[in-house]
Every structure is written in structure tokens, then in C-alpha cells.
Design brief:
The protein is α+β, with helices and mostly antiparallel strands and about 100 residues long. Helix content is about 20%, strand content about 35%. It is built from one helix and five strands.
Length: about 100
């Protein structure tokens, strides 16, 4: 019975993991953390701050503005892998994403 329950849980959770987007890291220390799809909309928690190379973004989706700038939207994690800020926007060209 327990083995069957574990198999069912695995089958239910597998699609959720597959739907997660790429994990990205800043391409340099000038990467901006935004609150909306606009290059000037710095997230209120990130006013005057910068992310370093050890930070990561778990991408949930992409977006673009009227000028055609591409953004990633997702959750930002610190250098220890702890969730820092949910639902941030970043400019795609400022981040490197793995396969």
C-alpha cells in the first residue's frame, strides 16, 4: 500500500517539476531586479541594491514591454539558496540561463 502511494505521488509531482523554467544567474553585477516589465521599475525591496554572481532566478515565465524588451519573471534566490524575493522581473539580456 505504501509503495503504491509513493508511486502515485511521484506521478503527480513529476509534471510540476517538468514545468519549472530555467535557473538563471546574473551576467554581471549590474543586473537589475524589477517590480514590473519596465527597465526603470526597480523593485522596492531592491532600491540601491545589486545582486552578485551567486544569486539565481527560477524563471516561471517571460514577458515583454511595448518596446520589445524581453523579461523573465520568477523567484530570486540568494547565494545560500534561500528564497529572497518572489515574482520579480529581470531583463533577459542581463541574465545567463542554463539549458
Amino acid at each position: 500500500m505504501t509503495k503504491t502511494a509513493l508511486i502515485i505521488c511521484g506521478l503527480l509531482l513529476a509534471p510540476a517539476a517538468a514545468m519549472a523554467g530555467p535557473t538563471c544567474s546574473p551576467s554581471d553585477d549590474n543586473a537589475r531586479i524589477l517590480g514590473a516589465a519596465s527597465p526603470t521599475a526597480i523593485h522596492r525591496a531592491w532600491q540601491g541594491k545589486h545582486v552578485g554572481y551567486g544569486w539565481s532566478l527560477q524563471v516561471e515565465r517571460s514577458a515583454h514591454d511595448a518596446a520589445g524588451t524581453e523579461y523573465y519573471v520568477g523567484d530570486l534566490y540568494d547565494t545560500n539558496g534561500q528564497l529572497s524575493t518572489r515574482k520579480v522581473f529581470v531583463i533577459e539580456s542581463e541574465w545567463d540561463c542554463g539549458p
